[in-house]
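Priority: low. Protein: dolichol kinase. Input follows.
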Amino acid sequence: MRTRSPLRQPATSVRKTARISRKPLLLPCSILPAALQWSRHVPFTRKTISFSMDSRQAGESAILFSTMLYATLKISLAPEPVDVRFDIADYVTWTCIELLSLITVSVLYMLWTHTTISEPQTDVQNPATSPAISPLERTSFDGAGRTASQRTPMLRLPERSKVDFGFLFMSVPKNYRDSLDDGVLTGLLFGPLIATSLLWISLRSASDPTLAANPLPSAWRVEPPASLAGGLDAYSVTEAIILSRFSVVDLATLCSFIHLLHICASWWLESRFRVDGSPSADGERRSVPRSEGRRSWYYIVFTFMVSLFTFSVRVASPYMGCGIWQNLNILEAVVASLFFQFAQYIVLRLAHRGFTLGEIGLVCFGGTALLMELLNITIARIWPVTTAFIKTYRLPTPLLVFQIALVGGSFLVGFLLAPFLVLSRHIARRPVRRLRHPEEKNRQRRFLALGFYVGALLIVFGLIGIWARWCLGKRDPWLWAFFYLLEGRRPWSRPALLAYWGALGSLSVAGWNRQLARSRRYRNMNEALVVPSSGQSDMAPPSTGAGAPGTTSPNEPIPSVAPSLNQIGLFPNVAHLTQLPNGASSVATDILDAADKHVPTLRLNARRKFFHALAVVMFVPGIAYDPAFTHLAFNVAFALFIFAEYVRYFALYPFGASVHLFMNEFLDSKDSGTAILSHFYLLTGCANALWFEAPSQLISYTGVLVLGIGDALASIVGKRIGIHRWSPLTPKTTEGTAAFALSVVLAAWMLRLCGIAESFSTLRYGVITAISAVLEALSDQNDNLTLPLYMWSVLVLGDV
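Result:
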């Protein structure tokens, strides 16, 4: 019998030893410092001026400011459109003044919030203003008295100052998602950047006689844009879209200035309440009352004051020879001001801890733009003789009408049926022991769910359907959609594409449901369940100890609440999702369980990136073969996502439990709020190029390539081989950034070789992709939302 030599170690031990010995050589190192600091003594005084800024935020700011300056330069040098009956020189001049003014005030704001002037003496009672502490170590207090470690508990690196965080009027830190920075430049500059890119598309197309004759993007099979046949002096479609996009730039700058005004008013009010500079004892902001009712009233009063100021500026500007916001009439300026501010408050209240300050500004601007298109289409239909053109920021085709009806109508359904939703959630949260008749809980939930479903059908087929029929020229929208489904290149092409999407989506969801159910079953069998106390709220996740099913880990920061929901009674029909089925010893169940054991359950990051890869497989054929139909399909999917979120959050019978448990397995630290938004961001990122009517087929793939290939590979490569971090405050690595840029460029080349994308400048495309990859690494905003928008805008401005 062969004996093992005692001097010879097993191969596995050798490999482990080698791996351990190499580990110190692979410790992450940082390319940028944690912060950029500068301090100088003010001559002839005892004061010292100091500047301190997170290097990541500084890099992100430099990219965004440079991009906005480039966009302003492109507009100022725009070619003269052909066959246009008005001079655009005055429009261009005042548009550039608005953009430069916004850039200037944004730069001043960033300098103001990151610069401090201090006295030489040390204030022991207020370490936040002590000059003996460096600006980087001055973590102490943001505007709410909360330390950096409290705002971002995931940090284990040198803490940074949080005094630069901004807040909307009457808001507190707990209203926002935890992040390394507030992303204020995202809220201020992204809207104008997108609007300027849309304007550049229309100006560039109008200067080309071939493109001016057919403003629709190539390969779009849909009826031509509508125009007003009569009116005082009706414009052509090309003239109308140019004037409309000058208007959307004015709308974007208006919303950005209102956003900044809220932030500055919040700063000023907090400074008045904190005379001694000390924070509040309970970590809140002293200028914000604790009563929700008082907060709401103060916000409403301030909103009307801002809207009155907007109205005054718009009325006085023509008399002063000023063209600021001249492309917005008075009604548009007032409605946009009111809606944008109320939308911000509603988002803070309903999507609690779901957005950063910058993401709120960007999302609310998008909602305001959609409302203004709805308003202008309706006005043009009611009083066509009072307007010269249909002022929509995209081409006024039936696709735009359906987008407004589907997306806007979905939110309208939730607003009108809010009593059913609120009562459903209220009953689901109440413990059974607190009900007078516990046996009636399920019956009440069924009646509320039935009321919501019936009401939604009445609103969709009634109010929304009537409006769509009216805007389509008295054509039934349901019949139009049915015949449009059969009007592809071949009668079966669009139904086949629809079946392809449905098959992929159904198989993916069913497969993940099977895997996640198997994971929950074996976790419940092998680990002790933690029974919550009887007084615990139904909607709160259970308190767990080490090793319990709800314990968080670095890879899964959001606890799984599947076991607790069955015990505490939020979803009575959840038992079959967390327990072994009856007859588990049957042959069929044994075969399925045996098959499941051979399929690994992926970690959270892999689960999420699976859907990114699925987006490539699903959407590339649709964009390549029929982009107009894919545009409509994206709108339908977004509306379905909204209804699914209603069902999940408000625990609507009987699907609330299934949707909640499925979505809960894919949450990360950026989905820590009440609303789950990742799937909305992913869909919006893939769809925005089509929704903005990209001028070329290549640019139409931007969102799919960025999120489905670039972002996924950057995450995988960065986690596996990345050792050169961009900053000590971020896990993003240069290896992941390089993988992002290289994979997107190679994917674009593959599309070109396959004949489904035009020829393009590889150098320009590569440079823009590299800049976008660096922005993804430096920004702490949700990259599924911001990155596709940024890259699409720069690709349009760069004329790739």
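The longest helix spans residues 237-273. Residues 1-26, 122-162, 527-589 have pLDDT under 50 and may be disordered.
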